[in-house]
Amino acid sequence: MTVDVAAVVVTYNSEEHVAGLLDSIPAAMGDLTYSVVVVDNGSTDGTMELLRARTDCIAVESVNDGYAAGMNRAVRASPEARTILILNPDAELDADSVPAMLRVLERPGVGVVAPRVREEDGTLSPTLRRGPTMARVGGLSFTGLAAFTERIEDPSAYETEHEVEWAVGAILLVDRRCYDAVDGLDETYFLYSEETDFSLRAKDIGWATVYTPDSGAMHIGGGSGESATTHMMKQINRIRLYRRRTGTLRAAIYYGLTVLTEMRRALFGHDRSRPTVRALLRPSLRPPMLNASDSILPR
């Protein structure tokens, strides 16, 4: 039997939040048929015990081989579905939010739909992004100029439905045909940049990512925490993504600008930037799960 939506979640020490997400799903689906699969990437808290005690999801226990790998595993464990709903465990969906996204996804050429997301305090969460460019590597968002800013913070951009280059992957509805055409999420990133890569590769072959304010959700954020290691992974994966899309020469310049940006942040007291600079300059210090330690320019 084919369902309308296969909801997929990857947890990692998510005991505090995942119940809220699962509780929000039935009302969010409206009259749609759906399944819920949660892949746990080696939690050491009570996440798996919580999931096993529930009857509204299929829980899959896994080793931690990355967020993208967990998502792809959850899709494989799901029944056949027309769409895939990618969810972070620290998100909560509004009632009837998924049918609102599905109405947009059913338009020709739309492969990914992102809803309007709010923070836990009710304020707008700026989840929309422009594509990576050399001018946007320097963290110059304070200028407010689109040429230098990847994150879209202008509240007016969240008032109307429009195509975007990519959106933060906490809540995304994906056409299954698009997912298959792009061959799922790229597991080599392990964590971070996989949603950027997915939307950009989808756009390359004709599938658009569209934002709609008609669907709502909350994202608590920080469910897996941020550390020096995760900050390091973000910066390394941004360079890898840029290299894969533009080639070695341009990526070498992008790499250099990233090093300078992280040095500047370190000078201004950003503790997570100091180990990131060291890892960028000494590949042996990079997180081994990225498999990006064989050359100075991350592959």
TrEMBL record:
Tell me which InterPro entries the record gives.
Glyco_trans_2-like, Nucleotide-diphossugar_trans
**Domain of life per record:** Bacteria
Q: Name one Pfam family in it.
A: Glycos_transf_2
- Sample GO molecular function, one term: transferase activity
Q: Which PANTHER family match?
A: RHAMNOSYLTRANSFERASE WBBL
Species of the source: Microbacterium aerolatum
Organismal lineage = Bacteria, Bacillati, Actinomycetota, Actinomycetes, Micrococcales
Q: What is this protein called?
A: Glycosyl transferase
Domain called Glycosyltransferase 2-like: residue spans: 8-127
The family database entries (SUPFAM superfamilies) matched by this protein are listed as: Nucleotide-diphospho-sugar transferases
Tagged with keyword Ion transport:
no
Gene3D superfamilies hit by this protein: Spore Coat Polysaccharide Biosynthesis Protein SpsA, Chain A (3.90.550.10)
Entry keywords, A to Z: Transferase
